[in-house]
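Still learning. Show one?

>
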Amino acid sequence: MPGHLETLLAFDRQYQRDQQQSPVFLHRRDRRYALDSSEGQAPDISRWLAQLHAIGSHGADRYDFPEIRFWRRFSNGFIAAGALLGVITMSGLLFYDGGQQINVTVILGFVLLQLMLALYTAVQGLAGWQPWAPLIHSLQQRLQKQQPSPALSPLLGPMMTRTAQTAGLVFGATALITLLLSVVFQDLAFGWSTTLDTSAEAWHRVVSWVALPWSGWLPVASPSLDLVEDTRFFRLEGSGVDTASARWGAWWPFVAMTWLAWIILPRAILLAVATVDLRRKGRRALTRHPGYQALLWRMETPAVDTGADTRDSGKLPEDHHSATVTVPHSPLAVSWAGATADALLPGVDKPLPRAGGAQSLQADRDTLANLAHQITEGRRQLVVVTRSWEPPTAELADFLEDASEQLPGVTITLLPVATEPGQRPDEQKLGQWLRFAERVGQGVRVAAAETQEAAHGVQ
């Protein structure tokens, strides 16, 4: 799978589909997979999902999750806002009207604020707090017109933390770029000022502590005591010292390194922490999913068949009143959950359009809409190809009902295929499809490969 969030959502989607299957079928399917995998690598959820999706859907549709699309758009918008805000903020901090110098004290205060926000965001994610959850859920419902997946609810806090740290990192980067461009294209005059009775020696100790990470290998970015003494200014005119103009610009290496070391670097480290934490909690959410332990039990527990040797084990139950029909000639056709019947549908365009399986309901509706455009006077037969050994599902019944509504006047025929191409399924498997067609109604028939003329169709 391409990522841990996609794996969790794919597993939850498969779990919802499996609720419509019988426990016996699920046990046999998953136990068979575990036995096949035991010769190589240990059973793995990602490989299990990949195998099911390879059978049941197009590769392009495997990982199409509305939740992931929403978070990508949300994150991109948040990051773009952070980038724009970084440019605006640094431009505001460097604003100089000629009346007074750019106050380094204000810049240091802003750096401290950003560092506190970064740490608070990290703690919020690690603790699992979700103060933004109601707003995000409301926005997601408004954009997607559907309820968010409950599988992602435990991960909302870490996901928001990762997005916020990424936006903070981009904010710091664009602000630093704005500072460097301003240094090149403008004449910046820095200084320091405070209302408190602070001596130059005390302020020098403060900036020396801030510059401690790089003072040993980049002394030009560590202000000297002389620079601190020469660049203090006051708002009142005439109260400043007589300082050379070039001295006011000597602060910019310190400001740039302070921004890099105390805003950008902490954000990058905390972003890595948030990414690792999100992956850890994503794996934990998967193991705590209600279908996870049941899947492991089915993989580890042998499937035991009973009653295979009884006298009536191979007989068809006598609770249906219809027979199969021959495969229609040159029909419209659709593949349900990836079933194929090339040998039984000569002259029909391949590959068949798909429905069911891992496809969304909207994708099924689009398939029916495309089929509706292909209806002609001589093509009013729709064949739905299924696998005979898989039990009919309520999802298929809903699809047939939608097909009857969207394709009026079209006769719908189910075509259960056997494991061997072109062969007729055994009567026991066909029996479940005949009973299913009778329950569905809507004029649905069941077809099978025949060697002679078939019996009358289901009315």
Notes: The two ends are 45 Å apart (CA to CA).
